[in-house]
Write a structure and sequence with these properties.
binds magnesium ion, 7-stranded mixed beta sheet, alpha+beta
């Protein structure tokens, strides 16, 4: 079974109905609203395992703390929620030093402060094999959440930022280039080690009333776009020339488009907007946020296709991003 199949199995067999659950399994985060409460609360869990999701030699404990929290805040951003609280479950070898623990939690705290999130608890355990961190992040939603399922045929597809940058950083690390020789390499390494969750853009987009569907990109566009399409019951056409790929990677013997489609760990937002509102989005989207780029459209047929630009022949999009149960490991 692949990751999607396991999620579907759990969802079908074990998701119970509850009047407080607005959205359960299957989106970037769950959405809860208690009787009488004014706002929705958004909850997500994500874990990082040593030698599966990261290698200890590739990032400092502070960077690891940052990344472990960032991947969770990114899921809150994908719903449009503002981060408020988080808990940390940490398993580590008994030999870990006090300084390492301080740095790890310091990395989390620094990122959390930027978005107003507060540590409220967790759990500790001893691990016989490396470090495992599982974080649960809780966000508050003043408006309506943005779901993966809201997309309609004809919607324009957008992404924030640059795609493939974090994957280029991973390639550099695997080549032993952990310092970075120039600004572009340092940028790729930073994207890989300390991804920036798009919380401000996410909550602006959700509140704008212009966005119909949204998710964050964690496993690569070729893996994540099919998830948005499946939830929205649409297909999609991507235009490769429009994808904001990390072009610098081309000079390092990497293929920027392949990194953008299959690389993963970008933690940018993917979202759809009705074609009639795309102009307004582009006019009103704050210039201080990471830029947004049109990369394609949602289509009525359920297929996923990619072409160079509108009007030319398209070929099927091959799903080859990251799946925990299909590839041996990311690192
Ligand atoms: Mg997500």
């Amino acid at each position: 079974m692949d990751e999607n199949g396991i999620v579907r199995l759990i969802q079908r067999r074990f998701q119970a109905k509850d009047s407080s659950v607005i959205r359960g399994i299957g989106d970037d985060a769950a959405v809860l609203r208690w009787a009488g409460a004014r706002n929705n609360w958004v909850i997500t869990t994500d874990m990082l395992l040593e030698d599966i999701d990261f290698r200890a030699s590739w990032l400092t404990p502070a960077e690891l703390g940052h990344k472990a929290l960032a991947v969770n805040l990114s899921d809150l951003a994908a719903m449009g929620a503002a981060p408020r609280f988080y808990t940390v479950a940490l398993a580590m070898p008994a030999t870990v030093a006090r300084k390492w623990i301080e740095s790890l939690y310091g990395g989390m705290a620094k990122l959390a402060r930027r978005f107003g999130a507060v540590l409220i608890g967790g759990d500790l355990s001893r691990s016989p094999m490396g470090v495992q961190i599982s974080i649960t992040a809780i966000g508050e939603m003043t408006g309506k959440p943005a779901y993966r399922s809201g997309g309609r045929p004809g919607d324009v597809l957008y992404v924030t930022g640059t795609l493939g940058c974090a994957a280029a950083g991973l390639q550099l690390l695997m080549r032993g280039q952990s310092q970075g020789e120039n600004a572009a390499q340092k940028r790729a390494l930073a994207a890989q080690r300390t991804p920036q969750p798009r919380c401000d853009a996410g909550s602006w987009l959700a509140r704008s009333g212009l966005v119909r569907s949204m998710m964050d990109l964690s496993d690569g566009l070729s893996m994540d776009l099919p998830r948005l399409c499946a939830a929205s019951k649409t297909g999609a056409v991507l235009y490769s020339e429009q994808i904001p790929a990390f072009e610098a990677a081309g000079k390092w013997g990497m293929d920027p488009i392949e990194l953008a489609l299959n690389g993963g760990e970008d933690f940018e937002l993917l979202f759809s907007v009705p074609a009639s509102k795309a102009g307004r989005l582009e006019k009103t989207y704050p210039s201080t946020f990471p830029p947004i780029t049109r990369i394609g459209v949602l289509s009525p047929s359920r297929s996923l296709r990619i072409g160079a630009h509108p009007g030319v022949r398209c070929i099927p999009l091959v799903r080859s991003g990251f799946d925990h149960f299909q590839k041996a490991q990311r690192s």
